[in-house]
Design a protein that fits this description.
With about 100 residues, this protein is of the alpha+beta class. It contains two helices and four strands; from the N terminus they run βαβββα. It has one domain: Alpha-Beta Plaits, CATH 3.30.70. Strands 1, 2, 3 and 4 form a four-stranded antiparallel β-sheet that branches. It is elongated and about 70 Å long.
């Protein structure tokens, strides 16, 4: 009797996990820094920097003292690590 396997031996090269999380970051002491377009542009560019690491972003929603957006986090990063990376890099760019 033959041993027949119906499983493909092809390796999937892309990340097939969808890990979409909606994130909200508040500014320190509820400071209304997102009223200036220059701060919004700088913050958006800082987030989009992480696309080279596999992050995907959808629409950004800026209010006076916070920003919220959905992000697809690659499986090699935990949600907590991704949050720390995004917060620290965007805050350094906005100084």
């Amino acid at each position: 009797m033959k041993n027949v396997s119906s499983v493909s031996s092809k390796k999937i090269s892309d990340d097939t996990q969808n890990n979409w999380v909606t994130v909200m970051f508040k500014t320190k002491c509820n400071y209304n820094c997102f009223r200036r377009q220059s701060n919004i542009d700088t913050c958006t560019q800082a987030f989009l920097y992480f696309e080279r690491f596999g992050f995907e972003f959808r629409d950004f929603g800026f209010a006076g003292s916070h920003v919220h957006f959905p992000v697809n986090i690659p499986k090699k990063y935990s949600v907590q690590d991704a949050e720390i990376m995004l917060k620290s890099y965007s805050s350094k760019k906005n100084v």
